[in-house]
Design a protein that fits this description.
- The protein is an alpha/beta fold and about 280 residues long.
- The protein contains nine helices and eight strands.
- The longest helix has 17 residues, at about 155-175.
């Protein structure tokens, strides 16, 4: 679709494991990278840095926005491990204002309503009613309707967060015509806690036709709306994975392996992307 990702600069939030940096260098061929980490662990971050070309910024991501090159195309992943709040929306607004056309922006946040209650000091009552009041005061200005108690359920809360993030991106980019946010990703998955990731391309209106012509919109895991792709696959041994892969064309019964039918169906949908892990003693 005209987006040479290997030429982009990857900007990700820090972790001593640098897993996303290693994957994106290996599979996307990106060799310009910036890691942002606000925890006070500079020695660990420097020691574990897998590539010399990674520029390390030991500060909040909000303080990096003004330093970004206005003509540089970024693949920026704001991979938060905490719930959505006003500060994160400010980060999204800041990135939306400065990223060059053609850049890719993704955001990940915790999608457990109970974790908002635990994390937010501004929440006076640690109850559903108090949470509802807090959410409406914080986010209802971005939505057509007020947030309801039913939106707090485990299944509906990720969709609510997706709407809020998308609305913030659309609002931010309204000040940069003709740029728009062309959504590609809208995932919900469990990484300990339930998480959502929403992402896409910031580009002009004509980009939609170019992306569609490339066939990307036809991929099973691409979403342009608020319907989330739920990633929920079973942990499998290597032998189980090989057996399922070799019998994909048959009517597989989950009972043979004591695997939940829904999880097996999810695995079959995403088997090409399922990672293989090995346990070893070091």
């Amino acid at each position: 679709a005209g987006y040479p990702i290997y030429k982009y600069t990857y900007l990700g939030l820090g972790s001593i494991y640098y897993a996303d940096f290693m994957l994106f260098h290996k599979y996307l061929y990106i060799n310009k990278m910036m890691c942002v980490e606000q925890s006070k662990i500079p020695n660990r971050m420097k020691f574990n840095k897998p590539f010399k070309f990674i520029k390390l910024k030991m500060k909040p991501v909000s303080e990096v926005i003004s330093q970004l090159g206005r003509k540089t195309k970024y693949l920026a992943w704001l991979d938060y491990d905490k719930p959505l709040n006003a500060r994160k929306l400010e980060d999204l607004d800041g990135f939306s204002q400065v990223l060059a056309p053609g850049s890719v922006l993704l955001a990940t946040v915790d999608a457990e309503a109970r974790h908002v209650m635990e994390a937010e000091d501004g929440l006076q009552e640690k109850t559903d009613e108090g949470l509802l009041t807090y959410l409406n005061e914080s986010f209802s200005h971005l939505l057509v309707e007020d947030i309801k108690k039913s939106d707090l359920s485990r299944n509906d809360f990720p969709r609510l967060l997706s709407k809020i993030i998308r609305a913030q991106l659309d609002k931010s980019l309204s000040s940069r015509p003709p740029l728009k946010f062309h959504q590609l990703f809208n995932f919900v998955y469990a990484d300990g806690a339930q998480m959502i990731t929403i992402g896409g391309v910031i580009d002009d209106e004509g980009a939609a036709a170019r992306i569609e012509d490339s066939g990307v919109f036809a991929l099973g895991y691409v979403r342009q709306d608020n319907d989330l792709v739920r990633i929920s696959v079973p942990p499998l041994t290597i032998r189980e994975k090989q057996w399922i892969d070799s019998n994909l064309d048959e009517q597989l019964s989950a009972k043979k392996l004591d695997i939940d039918d829904e999880l097996l169906a999810h695995y079959i949908e995403f088997y090409r992307h399922y990672p293989t892990y090995y346990e070893t003693l070091l």
